[in-house]
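Task 17 of the worksheet. Students: predict the tertiary structure of the chain below and write it out as structure tokens. Keep your answer in the requested format; marks are given for formatting as well as content.
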Amino acid sequence: MRYFTRDWADGLLSDEETDQASEAYRARLAEIRPLLPPGAAELADADLHDAVIDLVAWAPHDRRLVASWVAGDLQRGYVEVLVVYTGVTLDAGAIEALRDLARDRAAELMYDEVDLADDGSLRHRLLFWPRHEVVVAFGDVQVTVDPRPDRRVDPGQVFHEEHPDDV
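Model answer:
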């Protein structure tokens, strides 16, 4: 994470440092927003705070990652946020972290950042509780948000890695 670090999330920074990090991210997002494809702008606007993973599907041969999140609360209502990343680059550590997080039904996405790298590729940085930080490098993304009745997620198979033989 570049702005919302683990120290920021854990309250280890001064009030001034906390405010500076939030303002720096808002300024960065305002700077890059005109350059973002529509899906990346939607992703930046999506409220994924405290979201839980419903499903992760990784297709390395297609460089496609699908993440289904359940977000919201009793006051705002609940939504499913389906995020389909294309042109994805993930390192082995990120894949293992996503596999681990998908199995841990208590894990939550604390904070996320959408950014544009110097090479023009997009980044979605994710900070999870109780552990893990994941960076998804991608070329494009589609975001779909649908209402849902509650926050419950299926405890079954939540991480799926497709192999060329599966298709």
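Marker's comment: The chain has one domain: 6-166. The longest helix spans residues 15-32.
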